[in-house]
Amino acid sequence: MMISTLTYYLSEHPSIINFRWSHAQSWGSTWSFLFSSIALYLTLALLLHFLLSLFLRRNRSVSLGPIPAVHSLSMSVISATIFAGILLSSASEIRETRWFFRRTKTTPFQWLLCFPLGTRPSGRVFFWSYIFYLSRFVHMLRTFFTILRRRRIVFFQLFYNSILTFTSFLWLEFSQSFQVLAILFTTLVCSVVYGYRFWTGIGLPSACFPLVVNCQMVLMGCNLVCHVGVLLLHFMKNGGCNGIRAWVFNSVLNGAILLLFLKFYVKMISDKRKNKFAKLATKEL
Predict the structure, then answer these.
(1) Which residues of 207-232 are buried (b: 16+ CB within 10 A; e: fewer)?
(2) Is the pTM above the cut of 0.85?
(3) DSSP 8-state class, residue 122
(4) C-alpha to C-alpha distance for 241 and 201, rounded to whole angstroms
(5) pLDDT single digits (tens) 164-191
(6) Which one of 26, 170, 189, 191 has the fewest beta carbons within 10 angstroms of its own beta carbon?
């Protein structure tokens, strides 16, 4: 009974089935909104950092109480809901379009990577893609928590949040291929990462390894493999994949994020090794 109820509200509800991405009906669906919201996000983050530098001493942070933990719990629940919703919606879409797969000799996995030409941003899958796009604005709040608590601004965080918001808009605007798997991977990792942040935020013990960084590394690795799959399918299929131009632009942005993250990851590993060697040298002395 509970499973059927969840299935109905996550994939069979009329508002989900009849969803249509429209500049007139969908909130935040215009290019002007996208650019102005990202610009506002960057401006507010830089302004907050500047004001704190003026009025507070450098080593003094702002106490936020349970707000970051509540935000982490909310993001974990939202991400898990989107994951379940798009998973069930994809299963329903595949079940209802078996005739199309047989006629075009396409497998469900190929459909997940490569939408056929003429795909429109409507229906179950694009409803959850829209919810994922809106969740990016809630995700941005963590930047301000970082500035207030740690008194520093992380430019990679600003760049990553801006790019992910921009690419999730492109998925809807151009019915871009690959977005189903991208949302599945991202929301699964986010539900784990934010659940872990909530866990540590309420004072429970942390993991003995950098869980957040490793999860992000796995996510980027999965995205890279899937991007290669989309490229292969585009050239193998007659007509190619839908939204391929947006996908190319998306790939360039993801490549930039991957390079920046790898630079950060290598630096983190090298710093750890230096600290380890320094501790050993101190003990020997």
Answers:
(1) eeeebbeebbbebbebbeebbebbbe
(2) yes
(3) B
(4) 43
(5) 999 999 999 999 988 999 999 999 999 9
(6) 26
